Known about the structure:
This protein is mainly α. The protein has helices at residues 2-16, 26-40, 44-49, 74-81, 84-91, 109-116, 119-127, 142-146, 156-172, 186-191, 199-214, 230-233, 240-249. α11 runs parallel beside α13. Residues 13-17 and 264-292 have low confidence and may be disordered.
Amino acid sequence: MEKQEAYSELVNSNRNHIDPNDMATDEDAVERKKILNLIFANDYKGLKDMKIVSKNLNWLEKHSKTDLDDKITPLAQASFLGRGRITELLLENPLIDINMTTEDHEYTPLSASCIAGNFEIVKILSENGADTNHMNSMGYTPLLYCFSRMTETSNVYENKNICLKIAEILLHFGADINYYHHGKTLLMSFCGMSMILEQVQLEMNLEVIRFLIENGADKTLKSKTNGMTAYELSNNHCASQQVKDLLNSAKQVHFHQRAKNGKGHREAGTIILDDTKVKVGCCSMFYFCRGN
Length: 292
């Protein structure tokens, strides 16, 4: 009798840890494709009619029309495509994993929305406890992805404004502005650029440096690759003296609550923003913050 009870407990325990993707049937696969197609089509009513709020949505599936990753989750897809109402609907599901990542590059829904420049969705996800410091398989965090908007050559000022608004949201909810990627912080990368910048690019570069400092970027930190500070790295900048003057004069004016355990927090409140949305391809990377 004791052995039978022990076996039953083991079976029940295994059931609780089974990956839903490993148990998918042909019928499940058809339903998953339908859900992704409805999200892609922005069919809010169709999803409501499927009673999406009561379904298991923590799975990965391919969707050729959504150019995000090899396999995606419904929430990551909605966040990437800018489906605001659908994102809110999916978050009504009590079982949904808000930080579940895609397959291959490990994008969370928050990272996906930052890549696409959907700052209204960034706000929604952050307010609902999304991890603002999640590091994916390439070592990028949502804050780094939001600055990928600086790579766009069209709508330059609009992309810059969206980038900074998204950054404000992430910092408000605990993002680490001094996170190191490839041995450098964002401030080091923007201060240490050696490429020649056109006037518009230079103005944006300097504005971002000021933004970072005013929001808590530490000017005293040293690069893990060569031991230099942002000030020392600025010797390589095409406008070295302007960068140095900015580093000397700019001060922190915004003090953000740091997230515990590297995660976003729910208690920070809300941010009111307009709902402008501009999409950027997920392969965009840093033009303005590539260092040496």
